[in-house]
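hey team, just a heads up i'm posting the complex here instead of the shared drive bc the drive is being weird again. everything in one block, sequence lines first with there labels, then the predicted structure for the whole assembly after. its two chains so it's a bit long, scroll down
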Amino acid sequence: MSELSAEEIAKRERDSAIPFVDLRDGARGVLTWAQMDGDDLADAAIELIGEATRIAQHLDEDSRTIYTVIIGRKTSQFTDKLIHHGADVVYVIEDERLTDYLTLPFTNAMVSAIREIKPEIALMSASTLGRDLAPRIAGILDLGLSADCTSFEVGLYVNRRKNQKFEKAFKMVRPSFGESKLATIVGPWCYPQMATARPGVFKPLDIDTSRTGKVIEFKPEWESKDFDVELIESVRNPSTIDLSKADIMVAGGFGMGKDGFGLLRELVDAINDNGQKAEIGASRAAVDAGFVDYAYQIGQTGKTVRPSIYVAIGISGAIQHLAGMKESSKIFAVNNDHKASIFKNADYGLVMDYQEAIPELIKQVKAGYKFPLDK
Amino acid sequence: MSELKYPKLDLNIYVLIKQVPMPKAMKTTAEGLMDRTGKSMMNPHCSHALEEAISLKDKVGGTVTALSMGPPNAKQSLMEALRRGADRAYLLSDRKLAGSDTWSTAEALSKTIEHISNGDALDVLFAGLQTIDGDTAHVGPQCSARLELNQVTYVESVDIFDDKTLKVRRIIESGYQILKVPLPVMLSVSHTANVPRGPSLNSSMSALNKEIIMYNIGEVGLPETSAGMTGSPTVVSRVKNVVHDRGAIVLFTEGSTEERVSNLLTALKEETS
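-- predicted structure starts here --
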């Protein structure tokens, strides 16, 4: 046990004189958004209920109710699943026109539900949809919002500037400055304290089919302008390929072009022929350009993988891509631009054109080279 | 592909531009705020938003107004926007804005847009999807809520339907949506949307005669109670560094292609065995 410095002791004495405040004004409980992807329930829906339940244990006893709001065309079929995964009260908003996510009707529905429920905390997924919805709600209700969080805590927060102390502030932790820092955000002045949570990070609770809860059919007052924006087409490629089974991922970027991806495929085939499990991966830009199917997209709006070996070829290393592969055991990067940020996030690198590197890699694999895999 | 297929719409287009620290110069002050005194650049996503704004203007005509909020040196990025083809540029700069979170940033920018447009209604507001220093993706949607605009985020392409609606494609997980969106609208643009152009000779020449107009919060009617740390519903209470267990990269630069690839594969095997 180290002794506290005089400065630290003085600081603690000053802090102990700061008065506790509670600005919740009746706001209680934790609200989650049960995201739908078209007519299917997104995984994020039950992940958020799991995390909301863990957070609620640290709130006041009268603030532990989990309210889950589900919005869409065919939502009532999912209420049991939500309750079995931890929701106490499910607000069901069903309307034939809500075939898929649209900003304005979903905002109206959530804003109405938040006004009705008055929760202490509100959580939404940091998906492409949640990151559209949450800031719009925050803008309308004048709420604080913390983006893309990866962990949450509840605890003491002292604000010396305002001379205020909060006993159970919601602490929202998020990666920032290009994933190089973790910032803790608080906002115990406006309620609900609101955050989006990174998909895939939080664990759902184990399913309990004996759990019961309340279902409320909720009807927001639609405004005619809510349906001004028209959905012409919505394309979701349900994934048939399980990239998580590959030990070696060989991923390509936009700059490689269609022909480059042909070469990449040859390398993947050579590794598979040599008795190791390899799969192709791609950046969003390469997928958009039609070089490979959406199912192979790695990154924030694609898949997250953690293979033994990740070979990044012609990939610049945008944050969005890194988010999907940075946990790989070993990363090696090939790029002809020595300034590409992928080199800051790799173990080994070649500053080289892919047209030179890939044929050489194929040659060595065909000669019997085996990549070292995690045990 | 003739330009004639587009109607002449004379759109009133705005684009939000943020100047951010160069990735290498990113550091925080003792209070946990971004230190904005080092080398800086136009936020990459804003650069894609600017490109989308200028190409929309190229198609249907109109005016592109670039707007930034930040310290006086943010003029650099606005000047770059003018050289690439923006018609005019404004900077909201005031020490009282320090510590603004996304809500109060959107409040300040929206007030500025209302002040500049002064009744000449905005048609399209472009923003970058997110910034590389904050990574929140909030400010575009928060401005569109404030200004009561339609909203599409994660935008990958923008086309014209008719004189009152745009055809917009946005990213969703494992696919995309195509939307028919009436004006006025806020579009936040993904880095996959386009390859930004460089400065043009014509625009650079005319930029020489243009002035970046600066405002303080009083001039745009933003009350002090809504500005900066005072007006922000959230604060950063703590910042810590993420510890990377991945060591420094080993680059293979010596020898022929064959030797370099072979040395890399050998090193990979030896280290892990």
